[in-house]
Amino acid sequence: MESPNIITLLADALKGTNLSGFLKTWENAVLSFIVVSLISIVFYLVSRKMSMIPGRFQAAMELVIGGIDEFVCGILGHNGRKFLPFIGTLFIYILVSNLLGFIPFMKSPTSSLSMTFALSICVFLYVQYTAIKEMGARGYTDHLMGNPRGAIAISVIMPLFMFVLHLMTEFIRPVTLALRLRSNIFGDEMLLSVITGLGIGWLPLLFFSMLLAIIGAIMQAVVFSLLTTVYFALVLTDKH
C-alpha cells in the first residue's frame, strides 16, 4: 500500500543486479543518508558566511537553534547546554525525516521500525551513561531502588520491588519511543497513499489530511525530543 519512492523505483529499474538488492535491503538507510546530507548542506551554507547582521537564511536558522536551546535549557536548566547538541540533532533529524515523506517519490525513514529503534537505543544508551556518570554505579542502583532509607531499606522487599519496576521502565522507554514515532508516521503515510489512490475527486480530503499529517510530523519530533529531555532530567543529580 506504500506509494513508490525513488529508491524502490531505482531498485526495480536495476532488477537482477547486486545494486538492486542493496537498495531494497538498505532502503531506509539510503533515505536516512539523504536526510543527513540535506541537513549538512543547509547548515554548511548557513555557517559558511556568518555575519553579525544575519540575512534571512541565517536568521531563520538562528531562530530554530535558539528555540531548541530555550526548550532544552528550560527543562534541564544550566545542564541543558551539555545535552543540546544531542537533543537538537535528534529533533532536526526526526523533523526532516518525518517531512521527507511529503515530497513526491520520497519516503520518511522514520516510518521504519529499524530507524526509530536505532534512535531510541541511542537515547537509552546515552541516558544510562549519563546516569552512571552523574551518580556512579552504586548511586544509580540506589536511585533505581527508590533511594530507600530507614525501615524501608531494611525490609529489602520494597527496594527490590522498586528496582525491578524501575529497571523494567528503563527498558520499556526506548520501545515506546520507537513505536510511537514509527506508528504515527507510518499511519499518516498509509492514509495519504490510500486517499491519493481514490482519484482526483478526493483532492480536498487529501489536502486536509496532508495538513494534519504535517502538523502530526512536527509534533512527533517535538514529543520525541521532549521525552528524551525529560529522561535526562530524571537522572541528573541537580535538584534545581
Account of the 3D structure:
With 240 residues, the chain is mainly α. The chain has one domain (45-235). It is built from 9 helices and no strands. Helix 3 crosses helix 5 (80-100) and helix 6 (113-144) runs parallel beside helix 9. The radius of gyration is 22 Å and the shape is globular.
Quick description:
With 240 residues, this protein is mostly helical. It has helices spanning 6-13, 18-25, 27-48, 56-76, 80-100, 113-144, 151-155, 157-196, 203-235.
User: Structural class, please?
Assistant: mainly alpha
Radius of gyration: 22 Å
- Note the beta-strand portion: under 5%
What's the total helix number? Answer: 9
Tell me about the largest β-sheet: none
The total tally of domains equals 1
Give me the secondary-structure topology.
Blueprint: H1 6-13, H2 18-25, H3 27-48, H4 56-76, H5 80-100, H6 113-144, H7 151-155, H8 157-196, H9 203-235
Helix pairs in contact: 1-2, 3-5, 4-5, 4-9, 5-9, 6-8, 6-9, 8-9
